[in-house]
Amino acid sequence: KSRFADVTLGPPIEVFALNKAFADDTFENKVSLGVGAYRTDKGQPWVLPVVREVEKILAADETLNKEYLPILGLDAFSSAATAMLLGKDSAALVENRAFGVQSLSGTGSLRVGAEFLARVLGSKYFYYSKPTWENHRLVFTNAGFEEGREYRYWSESTRGLDIEGFLEDLRKAPENSIIILHACAHNPTGCDPTQDQWKQIADVMQERKLFPFFDSAYQGFASGDLEKDSWAVRYFVSRGFELLCAQSFAKNFGLYNERVGNLTFVLNDTSYVPQVKSQVTLIVRGMYSNPPSHGARIVAYVLNNPKFYDQWKEHIRTMSSRIIEMRKALRDALERLSTPGDWSHITAQIGMFSYTGLNTAQSEHMIKKHHIYMLRSGRISMCGVTPSNVEYVAQAIHETIT
Ligand code: PLP
Questions:
Q1: Which of 215, 229, 312, 343 is catalytic?
Q2: Most exposed among 2, 271, 385, 399, judged by the fewest C-beta atoms under 10 Å?
């Protein structure tokens, strides 16, 4: 008998199953609103021009070699990424009590951070928003946490944030629990706390001694403004919190498959830095030994060179504006069709995703009848909506609801 004979089939991963179903569909006007990747007005993937340019420079640079990077990655990358997150003048940086570790995109940074918290600090519970990015639970559980718990976040009835439920659940969390917070552009709801609500969240977390682990997958991509999209993280740092933050460069640099990420640590005293770094080094050494260099070199080159930095900022404005325009176009089209319900949430939400409010049966109907591929939760990726399909998408939603 094979040793593998009793292995059971695991559950499918919804977005990837959806992608495959989309690829297999032969219907001419099919629309893919599942996966979170930027698309141009023509529905095509986009390699940022500044990335292409820097790749040519790097390819021509014969001083670069293929030796291993240090275990904690390329310093020129992680320093620049940490400064981009916290702001160059951040007290934590000036006082040398913050540092970054290059890791494997957002997911890998979350995983390294989670392992550090579970194994080194002995953290037991992690809390994630209901709903959240579907991978948080798996990443933190595999990292060694005892238990994951939800905090209330989304209110179906208001199609907005349930701040009272959120705060109440935080108040009930045991001390030292890890609270996963989306830095901006909450996935999947597209609904972020206001600045005043962030202050209330910080108050409760400080009082209850809860530990923030920010997930920053969309800095600059959400609003087009790097400062605005990092406001919450910077605010927590200014309040004196110690925290972790996982940064992804998949969306804002379009470097999805290069796996470029940074894990920022903010401590309250510089004297703890060497010990913390040495423990992170052991975690990485035992997991993947050291990170890949290509994507990190690109990002480091751009962030450390004002001319390219400005060009990149132009690109993030292009991407975020296209998404914002498509939100307006979809809402307009639904209102023109007099589709029952209030569609203002489509433009109120921010970032790549919109929580449409369609239920599971309606979302499945969108796939089966209209060949519009979306998550069963009603989440759509706004990047998949284009000037040429927005009318079709709106009509499909209209037909589904009426
Ligand atoms: N966190 C959130 C909230 C996300 O939406 C994503 C990507 O969809 C990630 C983390 C991680 O992405 P990656 O590992 O590709 O950087």
A1: 215
A2: 2
